[in-house]
Amino acid sequence: MRQKCKRFEANKSLDHLIEPGKSIYKNIKGQWNRLYFQNDYPITLEIGCGHGAYTIGLAKIFPERNFIGIDLKGDRLWKGAQEAKIYGLQNVAFLRAQATHLLDFFEENEVAEIWITFPDPRPKTRDIKRRLTSLRFLKLYQTMLIEGKRVHLKTDSNLLFQYTLDVLQGQGIQPYDYTRDLYGSILIDNHFGIQTTYEKRFIPQGMPIYYLSFVLKAANLTL
Length: 223
What we know:
The protein is of the alpha/beta class and 223 residues long. It has a single domain (2-215), classed as Vaccinia Virus protein VP39 (Rossmann fold, 3-Layer(aba) Sandwich), CATH 3.40.50.150. It has seven helices and eight strands. Strands 1-4-3-2-5-6-8-7 form an eight-stranded mixed sheet, sandwiched between helices. The radius of gyration is 17 Å and the shape is globular. The model has no long low-confidence stretch (mean pLDDT 91).
């Protein structure tokens, strides 16, 4: 608890972290490139970013793009924001917010790509609407995303992977690509060697990593 308190206090002065209490928090919607990044680079979101491994990793590889990691846990975001500060990354931001409130922070067509990396699979039936690939969330992504841009999912959960495929099929959406064994497929070359904390834990255990990406451009999503 003491460590969390120290991190919460440190977050107040971290420029890479946007959270309640900071003036930019309520004014950033539709203004990310102008108010924060001060460039016109395309924006990639990592939703449920945890410590921000993907956000940081991608930002290092693609300096010509902007990256935003979103999570509700301030102590996790502290780590990502600290790394961004240490590496001097000007194309990184972390946002402390609930995923259900995404449209409070992003305007229509403001986002060029979304990554969902190892989210809670929410295995209980009563939590289906809380899965980050449920129709509830897909409608949010569709609003924010520039037409034709992709959503990526990486997970160790066969349940979430199959659920997502079923949701897409039910909406007439064909995945752009997918695999039930990322590290045994040719798609691994598209992941740049970036591994999350969970991924590093699962791979030595021999657990398969599932991956799929899809485009919502032609979808008329119905709840």
